């Protein structure tokens, strides 16, 4: 049985003259990844502040590792909780290494000077978050994404028992957000550090969390596994709009979308393009094809890939594979059936490695079915597979009739030409 890390017992909390949370009770076990979800203003950040003892409950008790947070000294709290700040305010003079070493302050000797162990822990935190190369750079000169990784390194150096992160005010773009989330997931899975995460993205929180806590108007209205909490009726009531929850039949993952976005694109050309993408290569490509009037399907994509996010935003029919896993037989089969229904297959500027090489089978099979196949140029620069297998494979595909494309304009022209040449080409 896992230890209990955090407990709220009938907690009501808020600000001067403004009660926000009412009678909240839950507990979090060691190693769990918990996401707090709920509409704007429902009290998610207030709950995080109460959990990290930035504000004290008006009634009820918050317990951290078995101790009432009110009774903990700041230095004890700092050793238990790592709160990832959205922005570190740093004067010009601080280097990344110095900022990360800040995470060690509560553990340093009483003279406040770092010892060999502190240096060692700070260095390991920087390696883990991939900021070691930046250690001598001034923090203020870094990009937003790099600064977020440094903030994580600082918190990791603290060696906390629980990490709390509020993404509500995060200004990171999709790629950087995912980078930070991946590090957070690794920390949780590999180091078994408990995570309490405030999220606005319901599908993503379902993806990465063991349990969800759903708040509405300051009350905890549901808590449980993503499947238990993400019920369309309940969500529609809480968010006060019509929402639907779809479950991917192959991977079991949940996707929440609004009734508005659930309308598929009109596909006025009555032609479907199946796109093999990944690594952000689909973001512009999908939109361009939709704008030109094609229906678009895509896959297999890694679930945490920015293209998966783009496909979700555009409500494309996409086949997704679990994060960090090579593409398996089931998702490949699902993508194959999408390819069979499509009229054309387009391979975007996707980098290939051992994990996604099997996607090239779809192009091979599309050609065998006499479907026009279009492959983005420059495979040599983006082929990271052993023995340059993707280059060899696409060479074979070109020899069998696959066409090359350079710019998106080229691709659109080639598709228009194919339409004229193969007017009968339909399923
Ligand atoms: N420092 C504060 N003083 C007074 N009221 C506050 C303070 N911070 C937040 N509030 C109020 O408390 C309520 C809950 O805010 P909170 O930030 O916890 O919600 P949230 O669910 O995190 O919202 P969002 O999703 O928009 O970030 C809101 O009505 C907000 O205006």
Characterize the structure shown.
This protein is an alpha/beta fold and 427 residues long. A 6-stranded mixed β-sheet has the order 6-7-8-3-9-10, with helices on both faces. A 6-stranded parallel β-sheet has the order 15-14-13-16-17-18, with helices on both faces. A 4-stranded antiparallel β-sheet has the order 2-1-4-5, covered by helices on one side. A hairpin with a 6-residue loop joins strand 11 and strand 12. It has 2 domains: 255 residues, Rossmann fold; 153 residues, 3-Layer(aba) Sandwich (Rossmann fold), CATH 3.40.50.450. The longest helix has 18 residues. It contains 16 helices and 18 strands. The chain binds adenosine-5'-triphosphate. The site of adenosine-5'-triphosphate has 12 residues, from strand 2 and helix 1.
Radius of gyration in whole Å, from Cα?
25 Å
Strand neighbour order, sheet with most strands: 6-7-8-3-9-10
Based on the coordinates given, report the CATH architecture of the largest domain. Answer: 3-Layer(aba) Sandwich
Give the biggest beta sheet: 6 strands, mixed
**Mean of residue pLDDT?**
88
Count of alpha/pi helices: 16
* CATH level 1 name of the largest domain: Alpha Beta
Strand content: 15-25%
Distance between the ends: 54 Å
What is the number of independent domains?
Answer: 2
Unreliable stretches covering 5 or more consecutive residues: none
**Structural class of the secondary elements?**
alpha/beta
């Amino acid at each position: 049985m896992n230890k209990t890390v955090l407990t709220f017992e009938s907690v009501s909390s808020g600000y001067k003259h403004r009660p926000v949370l009412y009678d909240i009770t839950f507990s979090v076990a060691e190693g769990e990844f918990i996401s707090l979800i709920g509409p704007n203003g429902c009290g998610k950040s207030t709950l995080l502040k109460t959990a990290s003892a930035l504000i004290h409950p008006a009634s009820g008790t918050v317990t951290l590792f078995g101790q009432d947070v009110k009774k903990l000294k700041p230095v004890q709290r700092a050793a238990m909780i790592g709160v990832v700040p959205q922005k570190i305010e740093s004067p010009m003079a601080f280097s990344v290494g110095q900022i990360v070493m800040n995470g060690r302050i509560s553990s340093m000797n009483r003279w406040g000077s770092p010892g060999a162990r502190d240096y060692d822990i700070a260095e390991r935190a920087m390696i883990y978050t991939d900021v070691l190369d930046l250690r001598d750079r001034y923090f203020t000169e870094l990009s937003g994404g790099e600064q977020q990784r440094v903030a994580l390194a600082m918190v990791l150096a603290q060696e906390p028992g629980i990490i709390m992160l509020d993404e509500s005010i995060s200004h990171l773009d999709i790629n950087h957000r995912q980078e930070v989330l991946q590090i957070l997931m690794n920390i949780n899975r590999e180091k078994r550090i408990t995570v309490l995460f405030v999220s606005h993205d319901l599908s993503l929180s379902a993806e990465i969390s063991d349990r969800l806590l759903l708040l509405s108007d300051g009350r905890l209205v549901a808590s449980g596994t993503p499947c238990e909490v993400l019920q369309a009726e309940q969500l529609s009531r809480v968010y006060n709009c019509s929402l639907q929850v779809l479950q991917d039949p192959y991977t079991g993952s949940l996707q929440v979308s609004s009734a508005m976005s659930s309308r598929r694109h009109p596909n006025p050309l009555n032609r479907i393009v199946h796109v093999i993408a990944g690594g952000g290569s689909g973001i512009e490509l999908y939109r361009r094809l939709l704008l030109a009037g094609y229906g678009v399907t895509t896959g297999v994509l890694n679930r945490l890939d920015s293209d998966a996010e783009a496909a979700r935003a555009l409500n494309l029919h996409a086949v997704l594979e679990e994060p960090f896993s090579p593409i398996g037989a089931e998702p490949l089969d699902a993508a194959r059936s999408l390819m069979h229904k499509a009229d054309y297959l387009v391979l975007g500027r996707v980098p290939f490695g051992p994990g996604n090489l099997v996607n090239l089978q779809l192009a091979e099979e599309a050609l065998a079915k006499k479907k026009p196949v279009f492959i983005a140029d420059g495979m040599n620069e983006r082929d990271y597979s052993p023995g340059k297998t993707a280059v060899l494979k696409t060479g074979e595909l070109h020899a069998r009739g696959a066409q090359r494309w350079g710019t998106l304009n080229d691709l659109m022209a080639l598709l228009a030409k194919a339409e004229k040449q193969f007017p009968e080409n339909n399923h």
